[in-house]
Amino acid sequence: MKTDINICYLCGQPLSDEICKDHVPPRQFYARELRRKYGPNLFTLPVHPSCNKAYQKDEDYFVHSVGPVAMESYSGKALWGDISDRCERPQNKRIVQMVLKEFDERPSGLILPFGKVAKRFDGERVWRVVWKIVRGLFFKEIGQVLPDDLPIKYEILSPGEKPPSEYDIVHTAPPLGQYPTVFDYRYVGIPEKMYLWAMLFWDRIIMFVGFHLPGCTCRICTNNHIGDAKMITPLSVGKTRHRHEP
C-alpha cells in the first residue's frame, strides 16, 4: 500500500489540511483489555473528519447490537466487558434500550425451545458498517475508492452456521488480518470485475460480501440488489431475518 495517501476513501475527494485517522475496522472492535495487554498497532487511513463522524453512530450500534453474539470467545468476552461498562453511562441509555428491544423470547408468538431467544437487528445500519470496512480494506489492498452505494450481496453467519458455497472459494485465499482473534479477513477477485470477501469478527461471526466493480451492467448490479442477512443470539437461538428500520 502506498504511504502518500492524498484522497479520502470514504468520499473519494482530495484530502484537505484537516484530516483524522479512521481505524479499519473501528478501534472500538478491539476491547480495552486487549489493547492494554497486547498494544496492537491498528491499521488506519486518513479521512475527512466529517466523513468519519458520519459513521460513528452506526459503528456504536454495530458493537452494541452484534458484539454480544460473540461473547463466548476470548475477544468477544473482553468486548462484552466494554459494552457492560458503557451501559452504565447515561449518554448510552438510548442505544442500550434500543438493543434490548431487539431480543425477543417469543418471535411472532412462537415459543422457542430450551430457553432460546431471537435476536433482531437493524440490517441497514449493520451492512453500512460492514461495507465501510470492506471499502477501507479494498483501498488498502487494491488502492481504489469504492462508492458507498455500490450494489452488494452480503450474508452474516452466526457461530456454528454453515457458510455459503461461495465461502469455499474465499477460504483458499490467505488470511490477512493482523489480529485474527478480533478481526480477520480474506478475499479473492477478478481484477476490474468482481470480488468476494469473508471477514471474521471476534472469532465467532462470519460476514460474507460479494460485489462487482462500478460500471458493471450485469442483472444483479442493474437491479441494485442487496442480499439478505441472518443472525442468531449468543445462546444459539432461532434464526431471524434482519429487519430494516428507517
Quick structural summary:
The protein has 246 residues and is of the alpha+beta class.
Tell the overall outline. Answer: globular
Overall mean pLDDT stands at 81
- By DSSP (H or I, 4+ residues per run), the number of helices equals 8
Strand order of the largest sheet: 5-8-7-6
Descriptive notes:
The protein has a four-stranded antiparallel β-sheet with strand order 5-8-7-6. The protein is an alpha+beta fold. The chain is globular. The protein has one domain (20-241). A hairpin with a 3-residue loop joins strand 6 and strand 7 (194-201). Residues 109-113 and 225-246 have low confidence and may be disordered. 30% of the residues lie in helices and 19% in strands. The longest helix is centred in the middle third of the chain and has 20 residues, at 123-142. The protein starts with 19 loop residues before the first strand and ends in a 5-residue tail after the last strand.
Question: Which key features would you list for this structure?
Answer:
globular; 246 residues; 8 helices; two-stranded antiparallel ribbon; disordered C terminus; alpha+beta
Helix and strand topology:
Layout: E1 20-23, H1 32-38, E2 44-47, H2 49-53, H3 56-66, H4 74-87, H5 93-100, E3 103-104, E4 118-119, H6 123-142, E5 152-157, H7 166-171, E6 183-190, E7 194-201, E8 205-212, H8 219-222, E9 230-231, E10 240-241
Antiparallel strand pairs: 1-2, 3-4, 5-8, 6-7, 7-8, 9-10
Helix pairs in contact: 3-6
